[in-house]
Structures are given as C-alpha cells and as structure tokens.
Amino acid sequence: MLSRDRLLVITRRLPAVAMMVVPLLAAAAPQVPATLERDPSVPRLALNGYEFHAERFGSPDKPVLIVLHGGPGADYRYLLGLKALADDYLVVFYDQRGTGLSPRVPAGSISVQTFVEDLDAFVDNFGRGRPVHLLGHSWGAMLASAYTGAHPSKVGKLVLAEPAFLDATTMDVFASGGLPPLRVLWGIAVAWLGKWFVDTQGDAYARDDWYLQQVLPLMQGADELCDGRLPPMQAWRFGSPDFQATVGRMMDDPAFARQLDFRQGLDQFKGQALFVTGGCNKVTGETQQRRLMGHFAHAQLEVVPQAGHFMFSDQPERSMQVVRRFLSDSVP
Question: How is 177-236 classified by DSSP, letter by letter?
Fold first, then answer.
C-alpha cells in the first residue's frame, strides 16, 4: 500500500511527466483504428438490429464454435490463434456490442442481458437449430456461462477460460488491497495526459477508448502472470462504453455488483464444461476455478503450465491442445 509520502511524490512529479510526454504526443498524435462505420474494409455481420465486426473460419457444414473475448471492452484480436480449429469447426469471432471495431453505442444501452441477446442471435444464425460450442475467455467465459444458463439446450460443449466470478459469493477474489503500485499510478497519469492528444477524427469515443487501452494492461498484477511479465496486448481498439456499463458501474454501485449472477439456470445444463486456467495465476487461477466448477453438473479442469491469465497468448500451442482434445472427445 502506498504511503502518504509516496503519493506526494507522484503528485509533485506530474508536472515533470507532462513536460516530458506532452511534446512527444503533440508531435505524433495517438490514433485509434476506425470502427466499421468509418472503414468499409472491416468484415461485418448484421444481427439483432446491430452491425458487428465479425469473422468466420471453416466450413459451415462443421460443428459451430463461437469464441467470446474478454473485457468487458476488449476485442477478439488476441484470440485469433483459435482459428486453427477451423479444420474441424466453423469458428466464429465477433467484437461485442460497443467494443473493438464494432460501432460504439451509449453505455446506458449496454447490459448483461444485451450481451446475452446478441450472443443468442449469433447462435441462431450459425447453429441453425443445432447446439453450438462456446469458448469464452475471462469476461467472455462469464458471458458464456450466463448464456448457457439462459439457453441450456442451445449449447453443446462449454470452454470457460478463467471466468473471474459467477456471482456475489465468488467475487471476493477482488477484495481491495489498497492503492495500486507507483508504476500503475504513473502509467495512468501518462495515459490521462496522452488521451487529450488523440486524433479523434470526429469520433466522440476515440479518446476514452485509447485511454482504456493504455490503462487496463497496467492493472494486471504480478500474481496473475508468469515471472511478472505481461504478454504484449493484442487488440484493435478497446470499448469504453462496455467498460463503463459493467466494471465502471460495479465500482460505483456495490449493490449492482452484488446482484450480478452468471450462473442462474446452469442446473438445467447437462453438457460438458471445461475450465482452463493458467498455472501461474494466483488470483483467478486453479483455486478460484475449482470454486466455480461446482455450478456445473459435468465439469473438468485443465491447468496450463507456465501460463497466466492470458493462456492463449502465453502458451498458445498447449492451450490449443487442451481445447481441441476436449471438443473432440465423444464421451457424453
């Protein structure tokens, strides 16, 4: 926990940070990629009254696997390695509503129910009456769980890669341990200065999206990583509305956080669930995942050695093997 003296040091040094950073940012204004409304080359799919940035790989005759990225507010770029599964599956990726290269919408129009309804549109479009497999990472695993509880008959197999929590009883892993380390506060200060130099090109969300993309990687603690090293963040563009509607609201409204329930209805799901966790992660790693497994009738756990929370980046080949083996296993 930071002492008062260290906080004073940070405050006193902010002008010096500004003197170093501002000329650099003014000379080369940061930019964010354009969302699909401004870039006609972005692949897209219109569903549920909205146009998503989306891609699919593989034959439509194959079983369907829909991949759900983390965040809320990230995009699917860091999970694209999973398209290697397209030899056996139709693999579908999409940037969730309000994030990545999908169009921005006001935070007030986003909710867990919105995310579930959007996913249901993808399931119906690609599943065509057949159950689909879901693979979610982090927040995406929480969304996959919520969807499965709401539509258990539409899900074949479920891969949950380190969901953070599923209800208020398992949210305690994020109990506050005091203020962030000095390096994090320093990085936040630099990012805050930088966002005012972002070349918005008329995009009202560009500054907040850029700021979020700089800050969120800083929040990964050393106890979630291997050797304290964060893998390079692969993302097109973070979505500030998604973050504000979920994590931001949780921080501002504890009552909202306590009523979140991503496991409702899971007692009706009789399919197989695979939990995947990184061996280095001491926060939402093996211990936490074993707590969450209890909500599923048929669940198993795979620990990926030498991987942190981003196991598909840390150990892509081993993580892929784990997923492929589980999906191809014909045991009911």
Answer: -SSPPHHHHHHHHHHHHHHTT---TT-TTHHHHHHHHHHGGGG--GGGSBTTBPPPP--S
| 109 contacts 137 by C-beta, under 8 angstroms | no
pLDDT, the chain, mean: 89
Task: Give the containing element (helix H, strand E) for 93.
Answer: strand 90-94
Token pair belonging to 254: 């504890």
Per DSSP, 135 falls in state E
Q: State in Å, rounded, how far the first CA of the chain is from the last one.
A: 49
pLDDT score recorded for residue 216: 85
198: how many CB neighbours lie within 10 A of its CB?
19
Reading the block at residue 202, the tokens are 């008329």
Query: CA angle, 92 as apex, 240 and 161 as ends, to 5°?
Result: 65
Q: What's the token pair of residue 317?
A: 């080949």
Q: Are strands 155-161 and 132-137 parallel, antiparallel or unpaired?
A: parallel
50-57 and 44-47 as β-strands: parallel, antiparallel, unpaired?
antiparallel
Low-confidence stretches of the chain (pLDDT < 70) are 1-28, 175-180, 231, 330-332
Contact 149, 268 (CB under 8 A): yes
Give residue 152's pLDDT: 98
pLDDT at 3: 40
Q: What does the pLDDT read at residue 174?
A: 73
* pLDDT for position 331: 45
Name which of 325, 254, 273, 3 is nearest 152 in CA terms. Answer: 273
For residues 311 and 314, give the distance between their C-alpha atoms in angstroms, rounded to a whole number: 5
pTM of the model: 0.90
